[in-house]
Amino acid sequence: MKPRLIVSRQMPGPVGARIRAEFDCPWPEGRDMDAEEMLQQVRDTQAEALLFSSHLKLDAAVIARIPDHVRIAATCSVGFEHIDVAAARARGLPVTNTPDVLTDCTADLTMLLILGACRRAHEYEAIMRAGWRRGYGLGEMLGVRASGKRLGIVGLGRIGQAVARRARGFNMRILYNNPRRLPEDIEEGATYFADLREMLPQCDILTLHARGGPATAGLMNAETFALLPKGAVFVNASRGGLVDEEALIAALRSGHLFAAGLDVYHNEPAFDLRLAELPNTFLFPHMGSATIETRTAMGMRALDNIAAVLAGRPPIDPLWN
Ligand code: DGY
């Protein structure tokens, strides 16, 4: 008999094929399951494993209602602020994420946001799609140069480091703020700032790669945006909760920020539409890991974690030990 699995979200084709081959799983019909539906399915099928992602909040109340026959909950994401890990640990439920496999694609997308925001990609695209029939003067519709600039990275973890490697190819000077200074071989010449407030005035471009959650909530707010030099470019492909969006909108409207490139928002998918009305934003719908290769690798990694635990082995990517 195949192990019983509940999947709360549509998966890429090869992941779906593996699920059908290795698990007994009622397939969701192309829409996200919420926590109530998931719990209902778990009870109905006596499922032994859960595969979900950041759309589904596994808070303490939901975790308390997960029946004991569930032996693992695997999120198909690297971020895990949607999971109350302490509650999972307290009741001995293994929870896993999918680190590493999405690092490169998220860093690629961050560079796209940096370049797109600096070079007014959204406005140029809109001009072309509207039929571009008037040539621009040499002083019109100018962006800001990205290469050679000072790039501040908040959170020089796996993704931050991958962004730094790419940015060096654009001759950018790397500054970073992290809870701890990193060894020199990881820094690769980047300048460390223990205090974010000291780094901000020196950044031409700022990109966030810190974890979401209470410790980083509202890290970028009216006070910290004001510390960036006038004309700075702001990029966020980590979590929307790191940013006070009122303050961001004010800084974009006033011209204190030249532009922002965003992949994440406070409320997803119902993001603040004022961001879309601004000409100086370059916006993506939370797609950092959204390539065929990476989403497949993430799904496979989540299934590897599930298979390991159901076979009595330790999880590969445990969120608690
Ligand atoms: C992640 O993996 O954390 C991505 O942001 C998708 O949620």
List the helices and strands and how they pair.
Blueprint: E1 5-7, H1 13-22, H2 35-45, E2 49-52, H3 60-65, E3 72-75, H4 85-90, E4 95-96, H5 103-118, H6 121-129, E5 150-154, H7 158-168, E6 173-177, H8 184-187, E7 191-193, H9 196-199, E8 205-208, H10 222-227, E9 232-236, H11 245-254, E10 257-262, H12 274-277, E11 281-283, H13 292-310
Helix pairs in contact: 1-13, 5-7
The structure holds (2R)-2,3-dihydroxypropanoic acid (DGY).
Helix content: 25-40%
Strands, total number: 11
Low-confidence stretches: none
**Can you name the CATH architecture of the largest domain?**
3-Layer(aba) Sandwich
User: Based on CA inertia axes, which overall geometry fits?
Assistant: globular
- What structural class do the secondary elements suggest? alpha/beta
Strand content: 5-15%
User: CATH superfamily of the largest domain, called what?
Assistant: NAD(P)-binding Rossmann-like Domain
The termini sit apart by: 29 Å
Average pLDDT score: 97
* CATH fold-type name of the largest domain: Rossmann fold
Biggest sheet statistics: 7 strands, parallel
Ligands, ions, cofactors? (2R)-2,3-dihydroxypropanoic acid
The CATH class assignment of the largest domain is Alpha Beta
Helical run tally: 13
Q: What count of structural domains?
A: 2
What is the H/E order? EHHEHEHEHHEHEHEHEHEHEHEH
